Amino acid sequence: MGGEMVASFHDAQAWTEPEPQARQSIIVRGLSKWFGSEQVLDDISFSIAEGESLVLLGPSGSGKSTTLRLIAGLETPETGEIFLRGKRIEHLRARERNIGVIFQNYALFPRMTVAENISFGLRIRKWRKKKREEVVGRLLGLIGLQEQRDKFPSQISGGQQQRVAIARALAYEPDLLLFDESFSALDPQTRTGLRREIRALLRKLRIPALFITHDQEEAMEMGDQIAILNRGRLEQLGAPDEVYNDPQTEFVATFLGAANVVEGCWRDGFIALDCDQCLRASRPESQMTPDRIKMIFRPEDVTLGAPTGLVETPHHLGRGEVVDVSFTGATESLMIKILPRGYTGPLPDLHCNSGSDKSCNLLIKAIRSKWEAKKLRLTTGSAVSVGLRLYKIL
Fold first, then answer.
1. Looking at residue 269, what is its pLDDT?
2. What string of DSSP letters covers 50-76?
3. N or C: which end of the chain has fewer CB within 10 A?
């Protein structure tokens, strides 16, 4: 890819010295936006610290691009405040905000060389030629494209074009970088390598960044924080591992990765599924009153064992039958039907008004490593004992 971006980071240190402690570079507070009678953003708030990356993740129509456009100055909010380095900016025009935007199509000028594209913003800002050449040379070294400086965009790869677009945005030392699904046009291998380089570059330069994406893997890899949007509202904001392992809503659990969602009721230290012969799992919060609940657990939190005994887990789910097996390389994915009367120990009375149908049609997804799959080989129709390492109650 024309040299490693990371290899030239000693140049970056000389260009922008990091501050001793991170500070909040951008603060978004109470942002709302309407298009006609439709509210597309509803009271959105978050902040991004110096050198930090935040990823806005959500389905189409969730408000991701609208949030980016409001910060960039391409749209005006109905309510809310935007502070950039302590200065309120929501009333400023886009060119007055010192924010760099990298779009999905990169927006490079086809009749300008790589070097000319990078220096374009400096030229319209009336920088002197010598200073422009110094900045372009430093940035070409930073992105590893010195040998491509005189080529046109059509003569370099998609990944190289992306790096040129980023260098052009970095040329005038922006206070914030915005990435509008900037990796989606690249092939998977190029995309994976490039986003790691860019992540390392932003950390080194301590430039705050906001990424817009619908790619969950990309969000987990790029973000110090992930903000999950749903129909214009912020469902959850936190570090990737926090949002994944401790989802606060069913939407977050099912949108960020795969999740099993099981309904039932809780009473006297046990959870009963609607087909109440199936699940008996203890729960420590004894102060709770009997109520309808949703239990959420990730496929990788399911443990499987031989049908003749209990699996080694604190939460025994019951017996099951494998109905589908899919090998994906590093992992094996299974669909398992939970069978009635899976728990054989003593139970209190757990009737919870779930209807008269006591048949169990519960299907759950389990994921095993290839080593676990080798240890206990399962095929369609295999009987298994099913347990959980972890679950969460909503």
1. 60
2. TT-EEEEE--TTSSHHHHHHHHHTSS-
3. C
